[in-house]
Amino acid sequence: MIRFVLATLLLITVSFPANLKYCIQVATDSNLEALKVSFQRVKDYPEARIENRENLYLLRVGAEDKKENLTVMLRNIRRYFPDAFIKKCEINESYVVYPQKSAIQETPELTGQKGKEGLREVSPQKQEPMKTKAETTEPTQGKETKELLIAIKNELSLLRKEVSELSKNPQKATEESPPYFEKFLYSVGIFTGGLFFFTWVLLILIYRKVGTSNVENTNLLNDMFNLIKVLNLLNKGQIIKMENGKLFVYDRKSEKWREVD
């Protein structure tokens, strides 16, 4: 009998899957009040909400059937929350803890002439003490300032985390670059290509004019050669860095930095 009941429950669970849609997960925090401050930046976006999942509060936006419908919204949100990303979310109003819908919004059939009477039926009997409690728990100006500072601190920590991740894995930064950034890199490539050609011509002219008769001219030519080497790497789309006067290039296959001779 127990096995039959368990099999029936499993069949019902499979027959009625969770309502999954694409949404943007903006931020997570264990402090609801700090996340409410961040909510003010995205409150005008559709389906902006704060959900409670296993003692962790999630700030989410949107509920779309297609992932592409959230691309532009994600780009705008990343100006303030660079760690935001698109994922599949279970749409369940019981998880939403902020903003809470009023009794009139939850029961539209009570908004007629008998709206007040119907509202009394679904409202708690001790309404006045609850109103007093809400007024006494209203945050003061000092508390709002503290929450704002906490939210700013969280955003700065997210920025530091993303910068450190991009420095450790530069390939990820190039894969997640938006289209307008790719156009910018293409323009930089054209510019560095032209500058590379101009530098070669200038180097030839300097070599013919001054030659390598002294140490100063030799150092000048070496600097010009190093500049051409750097421009050549940038023109090929390589990621470079300088450490202790040495030039390093990032090898995408081995995911390591190697020194350029």
The tally of beta strands, per DSSP, is 8
Distance between the termini: 77 Å
- The coarse overall form would be elongated
Radius of gyration: 30 Å
> Helical percent range?
40-55%
Mean pLDDT: 69
List the strand order in the largest sheet.
4-1-3-2-5
Along the chain, the helix and strand elements come as HEHEEHEEHHHHHHHEEE
The largest sheet is: 5 strands, antiparallel
Task: Describe the overall structure.
The chain is of the alpha+beta class and 261 residues long. Among the domains are: 83 residues, Alpha-Beta Plaits; 88 residues, no CATH class. 54% of the residues lie in helices and 18% in strands. The strands form two sheets. A five-stranded antiparallel sheet has the order 4-1-3-2-5, with helices on one face. The chain has a three-stranded antiparallel sheet with strand order 6-7-8, with helices on one face. Helix 2 packs across helix 7 and helix 9 runs antiparallel to helix 10. It is elongated and about 85 Å long. The protein starts with a helix and ends with a strand. About 16% of the residues have low confidence.
